[in-house]
Each structure stands twice: as C-alpha cells, then as structure tokens.
Amino acid sequence: MLIDTHCHLDAAEFAVDREAVIRQAQAAGVSVMVLPAVEVAAFEPLRALCRSHVGLVYALGIHPMLVDRAHDDDLEHLRTALLAHRDDPALVAVGEIGLDHFVPGLDRARQSRFFAAQLKLAREFDLPVILHVRQAQDQVLKHLRQAGVIRGIAHAFNGSPQQAAAFLQQGCVLGFGGAMTFERALRIRRLARELPAEALVLETDAPDIAPAWLHPGRNAPAEMVRIAETLAGLRDCSRDEVARLTAANAVRALPRLVHWCHAGSHTGAAAASRPT
C-alpha cells in the first residue's frame, strides 16, 4: 500500500480532471491520500471532497504563506471546525501549518503567532501536525518543544542530518517526494538513503514539487509509484519494502490513518459508514 501523506487535490490545478486524477492514483496503488487545508475558506470544500472518496483524508490548518491575508478570528474558526469534526476519522491532523522563511516579505512575527496558536489547538484536540518547514527548521523545532507537540510530519524535509535527528526526537517523521528524484539534490538524496527507515514517509505535494520526469509540469498522486521506486533505489531495497515501511511510518505519525488502511479492502462498507 502506498500512502501519499501530502497532496492538494482541492487545488485549482485539478479543477478540470480531479476525478480522473484520483482514479489514476487509486489504480496505481495509492490507497490513501492526505489533503492538508491551507486556509479557512478551504475547510468545507476539502471535507466534501474527502467525504465523496474512500481513502481521501484531510487536515485542517492555516498555511504560513497565507497568514498575512488571514483574519485574526480565523484561528477561532479553525478551533470551531476541529471541535465540530473531532470525531470524524477522516480528520487526521492539524495542517498545513508551520513557518516559511524562504519567501521574502512574509510577516514572520504573524507566522509565529499563528503557528503557536495552531500548535496549541493540536494539543487541545490531541491531533498530530503536518508541518511546512522552509528555511526555518530550528525555529519550528523550538515551537514544537514549547507546545509539547510530539507527533507529526515535517513535509518536504530539506534540513541537515542534525535537524532531521531533532525532528525524529520530537516524534516527527520526514516527508520525501519529488525533490528526491533529482540527481543534483545531493543532500536530500543522502538523507533519504542514510536516515533510519522509521524516519521516512512519502508524499507528492501535488500539484507542486513535480518529480524530475515531470518538471516543471503538474504533479499528481499517481507519481507516488515512481517516487517510491526512487527511494527503493537509493536504499537498495524493493519498492514493496519501501511501500510497507513508509505506510507504517505514516500510520505511526497520523494514527487515524489506520482506519483508512483497513478500509482499503472494505471500500463499500467504508463508503456507507463515512461520517458527514
């Protein structure tokens, strides 16, 4: 079983052929896809999309690149949504949240405030987090320690081996996807090859971070198959072994995924019992 731990199937890039993209991923063996929200306005459309497809699950959060346009009361809207849907097994995390110190002009103080508040909500609702970490690994780690958050995924990890170890000590696993497929991505490929097997999960970030064979085109969850093959080549093991290990790691990081891994072989029953 392949699990795409990070994709944005609700994005406008999929407006024309979203259903076909989902079918292609499922046909390729991608049984579960995790869709993190990026802003409050996306919450209900995202939930509706996941309700209509077995194996699509979601996280709710406010992306650090969008906090500048978010309203202060959006944090309360997030809390209300988490409270309303806390018993929905398809709600697997708080995310996508974090810090982005790469894009110029973003208000870092506002990012930090929103991030800290969302980490508190993750603790309140006992949910793991899906983290956006771009040129801010140490700052994100500091927030995680202060909030006492001990489970989640550091999406599109691109830090040092020391920072990787620190995230692992904090209970997080590390997401690897399209960037790993470029031969010039030496640091990412070295990490993917040398980190402990229990550290790794797979992702696409579709429609973004297209792998080498698609760059600069649109990414899609079906590309998980070749991404898994890339990781298998780096670690000198089989794709099936990569799929098994990374799926187990994903379930450990996002425990509610276990429901959907089991549901993969009981599609009809899962669809009939999915909460609305």
Layout of helices and strands, plus pairs?
Blueprint lengths: L1 E3 L13 H10 L2 E7 L6 H9 L4 E5 L13 H11 L6 E10 L7 H17 L4 E6 L2 H11 L4 E4 L5 H9 L2 E5 L9 H9 L5 E3 L21 H12 L3 H15 L3 H7 L3 H7 L3
Parallel strand pairs: 1-2, 2-3, 3-4, 4-5, 5-6, 6-7, 7-8
Helix pairs in contact: 3-4, 8-9
Describe the structure in brief.
The chain has 276 residues and is α/β, with parallel strands linked by helices. It has eleven helices and eight strands. The chain is globular, with a radius of gyration of 17 Å.
What is the rounded Rg?
A: 17 Å
Give the biggest sheet: 8 strands, parallel
Terminal CA distance reads 26 Å
Give the full name of the CATH homologous superfamily: Metal-dependent hydrolases
Q: Could you say how many structural domains there are in total?
A: 1
- Poorly predicted runs are 265-276
* Mean pLDDT over the full residue set: 94
Helix-strand sequence: EHEHEHEHEHEHEHEHHHH
**What is the class in the CATH system?**
Alpha Beta
DSSP strand count: 8
- CATH-defined fold name: TIM Barrel
- Major β-sheet strand ordering: 1-2-3-4-5-6-7-8
> In terms of structural class, how would the helical and strand content be classed?
alpha/beta
Give the number of helices.
11
Helical coverage, percent range: 40-55%
- Principal-axis shape equals globular
- CATH architectural type: Alpha-Beta Barrel
What percent strand?
A: 15-25%
